[in-house]
Amino acid sequence: MTTEPYASARRVFWVVDNGSSHNGARSVERMRQAWPIATLVHLPVHASWLNQVEIYFSILQRKAISTGDFANLDDLAARILAFQQRYNTTASPFDWKYTRGDLNGYLTPLRRHDTTEPTQKAA
Fold this sequence. Notes:
Elements (H helix, E strand, L loop, with lengths): L11 E5 L7 H11 L3 E5 L9 H14 L7 H18 L9 H16 L8
Parallel strand pairs: 1-2
Helix pairs in contact: 2-3
């Protein structure tokens, strides 16, 4: 928050998962007290797929770490750095095509379902 572009921004949004170190209303208040221009935004619970870092760590775990047997931490670090270098040469930006309209189209029937009267069972 002390470096640009954050230091001169009017508003900054920090998007976080619901990890134990930053979940709940107290974390929002701590952020507000420490950095008044910052707003802490929590991802929905069980939506780690929305967090791009979580996706990268998942790929790293599956492709580079769980497939190996490492003699020491230096070997593990070398594997991670090699994976990172290869990943960065082949990765491409994700073109998100799911729009707000798509989401609303999905949610509208769900909302209607939640507000309808329950059907009575025949006796």
